Amino acid sequence: MTQHTPVGVLLVNLGTPDAPTSKAVRTYLAEFLHDKRVVDLSRWIWCPVLHGVILRVRPPKVAKLYQSIWTEQGSPLLAIGKQQQQSLQQKLNEANISASVELAMTYGNPSIAAGMQALSHCKKVIVLPLYPQFSSATTASVFDRVARFAKHQWVLPEITFVRDYYDHPLYIKALAESVKNNWQTNGRGDVLLMSFHGIPKRYATNGDPYPEQCEITAKLLAEALNLNDSEWKMTYQSIFGREEWLSPFTDKTMEQLGNQGKSVDVICPGFSADCLETLEEIEEENKTTFLNAGGKNFNYIPCLNNDAAHIDALFDVVKAKLD
Ligand SMILES: C=CC1=C(C)c2cc3[nH]c(cc4nc(cc5[nH]c(cc1n2)c(C)c5CCC(=O)O)C(CCC(=O)O)=C4C)c(C)c3C=C
Ligand SMILES: [Fe+2]
Ligand SMILES: [Fe+2]
């Protein structure tokens, strides 16, 4: 039953296919890769490449990768998102804050329009993109979709956006606790590798603050763990297309560390939930690269997901927007 609370919270993550099939992946990629925030090339150049090559070749390949991480609850990104929604709702209830939390995805389902509609009884809506570091390719796309929804409404709530939380003390604390807990259970490697999703270098040159924010997150986490410079590295993963992306690359660094016979702990601080890019690309592909190169021990530290410390951080981010 809909609760008529004065405040709504819309948690938003990237999106994921409805099923691990070629057809569903094609539908998802078509929506995602048509967004100019994600690929900003002229449509005259991009659409022939997208329709003629990418949407024919990529879906069957990527569907197989999704099959390797799919769960009984569906795509990990969506299943974890639902847990985060429930936990944040519970935390707000416990704090006697009358607010309704909805989960939405920028691409695919549940859509931002459906989430905003479900919160249409609210006087105020706090939109919280689940990206700690701002990027035009991710956070700004959420803003675009909310604005697109608003364009068709007679009545609007007060809408507040969270731009980023890359240096929020509770976010850094949650990451540090997660690493320490993992070390206690699995032992500690020689190097902590912090891998962030990449973007084309040109986006950063044009003013996207994403790399600076990633660097600050990484430094704050290293400081919280008392690591010296030789004990940690930050890299960028998930390169797509032919132009130059942010570096150093995760896979190349993994190969170098493997060549040196090191053991490595890997964390992906920019992902608030485990997904294809962490569970398949890091925990499967990069692990293989590292071990094949001669690496000793590979330990993947899961994303903050539904950790209590993560929900505490999200709660604090929301609370700051309530006053
Ligand atoms: C085409 C360019 C891409 C940019 C720029 C980009 C930026 C970016 N993405 C995330 C987070 C996620 N990306 C995910 C999947 C994914 N990303 C791209 C491309 C770009 N991302 C593609 C084509 C895909 C789909 C898979 C594939 O075909 O390889 C996901 C995982 C979704 C899931 O279902 O699990 C996330 C999360 C960030 C944070 C970011 C820039 C900061
Ligand atoms: Fe097109
Ligand atoms: Fe991506």
Automatic annotation (TrEMBL):
Annotated pathway: Porphyrin-containing compound metabolism; protoheme biosynthesis; protoheme from protoporphyrin-IX: step 1/1
InterPro entries referenced in this protein's UniProt entry, alphabetically: Ferrochelatase, Ferrochelatase_AS, Ferrochelatase_C, Ferrochelatase_N
Binding site for Fe(2+): H197, E277
UniProt entry keywords in alphabetical sequence: Cytoplasm, Heme biosynthesis, Iron, Lyase, Metal-binding, Porphyrin biosynthesis
EC number per UniProt: 4.98.1.1
Protein origin, superkingdom: Bacteria
Principal EC category: lyase
A Pfam family it matches: Ferrochelatase
Catalytic activity, as annotated: Fe-coproporphyrin III + 2 H(+) = coproporphyrin III + Fe(2+); heme b + 2 H(+) = protoporphyrin IX + Fe(2+)
Gene Ontology cellular-component terms listed: cytoplasm
Family classification: Belongs to the ferrochelatase family.
Function: Catalyzes the ferrous insertion into protoporphyrin IX.
Protein name from the UniProt record: Ferrochelatase
Native source organism of the sequence: Pleionea mediterranea
Origin organism lineage: Bacteria, Pseudomonadati, Pseudomonadota, Gammaproteobacteria, Oceanospirillales
